[in-house]
Automatic annotation (TrEMBL):
<dbReference type="InterPro" id="IPR036291">
    <property type="entry name" value="NAD(P)-bd_dom_sf"/>
</dbReference>
<protein>
    <submittedName>
        <fullName>SDR family oxidoreductase</fullName>
    </submittedName>
</protein>
<feature type="domain" description="NAD(P)-binding">
    <location>
        <begin position="7"/>
        <end position="84"/>
    </location>
</feature>
<dbReference type="InterPro" id="IPR016040">
    <property type="entry name" value="NAD(P)-bd_dom"/>
</dbReference>
<dbReference type="InterPro" id="IPR051783">
    <property type="entry name" value="NAD(P)-dependent_oxidoreduct"/>
</dbReference>
<dbReference type="Pfam" id="PF13460">
    <property type="entry name" value="NAD_binding_10"/>
</dbReference>
Amino acid sequence: MRVFVTGATGWIGSATVDELLATGHQVTGLARSDESAAALRAKGATALRGDLDDVDALRRGADAADGVVYLANKHDFGPESDRAERAAVESILGALDGSAKPFVLANGLSGLVKDRAAVETDASPEVGPGADRGGSENLALDHVERGVRSVIVRFAPSVHGVGDWGFVTFLADAARRRGVSGFIGDGSTRWSAVHRSDAARLIRLGLERAPAGTRMHAVAEEAISTRAIAEALGEALGLPVTSIAPADADEHFGFIAGFFGLDMYASSARTRELLGWTPTGPTLLEDIRSGAYGHAE
């Protein structure tokens, strides 16, 4: 299959490109820079220069492909990023309408439900251009009726591994700055986690086999307490572990406090049954204790 990947040199995207190439697919990756393009070519992929604002490049990439994997995001958690994602996804879906080609779209788990594990049948509440991520999940699913094999992959808040620069890296950096590894309140809030290699394999399986309208959960560990994460970081970094009062969390952790204080956990039972996906990578706590987060941001 000829696969067009956005976010192809990012944390999850680069692992996905490796997975696709290793299993015989041809890959074209969207590249914002000469360095990104060179990295893709060095792997044996093709580079298409452009970014999320270049809707013409996105259409060309989708037109020339047998399937599309959308993993890009501006990561500013604001209206500009939401608008950019909406326009980018609209341009790709316009190119795929009526083709029956697969379109795998990334999303997260936050905000789906409260007080229980999210499941794959839970619909995203984000609808319309002004919604989080431009309502792209529901937009993609709306295009199933227009002949696109849309598949959603919702990622655990920690997609971990050596070299991770995501949420756990920010927690480790806060611990180094403050001299303590903290958790908020009693540390009972829960996060799901998945190793990067397992996430990449799930994306490939969804691209190849998931039926139109599928929501997949890239979740290997359903619920890890935030206290356990802080304790593992403290052990790895040689720092004491302490509770941070909710009123002091923003000052202590920075922007990551808003996520560390949330329950973001989900089941992947339906995903595993549907696609035969069995995670095999290290656990989050194993990665932390082995030194995966010993690097500075």
